[in-house]
UniProtKB/TrEMBL annotation:
SUPFAM superfamilies: Putative DNA-binding domain (SSF46955). SMART domains: HTH_MERR. It comes from Saccharothrix lopnurensis. The lineage of its organism: Bacteria, Bacillati, Actinomycetota, Actinomycetes, Pseudonocardiales. This is MerR family transcriptional regulator. Pfam families: MerR_1. Keywords: DNA-binding. Residues 1-70 form the HTH merR-type domain. PANTHER family: HTH-TYPE TRANSCRIPTIONAL REGULATOR ADHR (PTHR30204:SF98), REDOX-CYCLING DRUG-SENSING TRANSCRIPTIONAL ACTIVATOR SOXR (PTHR30204).
């Protein structure tokens, strides 16, 4: 297919496709003339994946490049790929110096028995959250973590089951990308919907099917 058809089928404007090509996010097409190239279904698939990461996941071009490098690395394990993708989706590590928040986060991971490195982006992000909660006067926010952990462990099981059902490692790695980017967005949306539902039920007990 020509670039115009690739644009039409993917919903990505031609100038954006050319930008992705220049940035190496999309492999070059097969040249049919000095100024024309032919693209295959693989290009369409990769373009849709890039679009999901950029538009839905909010990833930077550099982060997308790192994730695609993970997908294209034949030696990359699924476990390591998940870490790479999750780190790319996450915000840059904040510079947190709140010792109380750090101790709270450390006590939490030890209580859960989680092997989470203190220099990991996830641990640092948690410290930042707890520090912010303290700054705005929500000192009891830390008490929510254990309940959050139980819910997140269930989500993690769902995530892993999703990718492990894939037919190949390549599909599984791609599933990690899509599941992380779209999964986070879906969880945020569902959480908002559930919170609204619970609030409605508590205002009107008769609306609760359990009474």
């Amino acid at each position: 297919m020509r670039i115009a058809e690739l644009s039409r089928r993917s919903g990505v404007p031609v100038p954006t496709i050319k930008y992705y090509l220049r940035e190496g996010l999309l492999p070059a097409g097969e040249l049919t003339s000095p100024n024309q190239a032919r693209y295959a279904d693989a290009h369409l698939h990769r373009l849709r994946l890039v679009r999901a990461m950029v538009e839905m996941g909010g990833l930077s071009i550099a982060a997308v490049r790192d994730v695609l490098g993970t997908l294209d690395d034949p030696e990359m394990s699924l476990h390591k790929a998940m870490g790479t993708v999750t780190a790319a989706v996450a915000s840059p590590d904040p510079d947190v110096t709140d010792e109380v928040a750090h101790e709270q986060a450390l006590a939490f991971v030890e209580r859960q028995g989680w092997e989470c490195a203190q220099d990991s982006f996830a641990f640092t992000a948690l410290v930042d959250v707890l520090a912010t909660a303290r700054e705005v006067g929500q000192r009891r926010f830390v008490d929510l973590l254990d309940d959050y952990a139980r819910a997140c462990l269930q989500l993690a099981e769902v995530d892993l089951d999703y990718v492990l059902r894939m037919d190949s490692k390549d599909e599984a790695l791609e599933g990690v990308v899509v599941g992380t980017v779209l999964g986070d967005a879906a969880v945020a949306a569902l959480r908002a919907m559930a919170r609204h539902e619970v609030s409605e039920r508590r205002q009107d007990p008769e609306a609760d099917p359990e009474g």
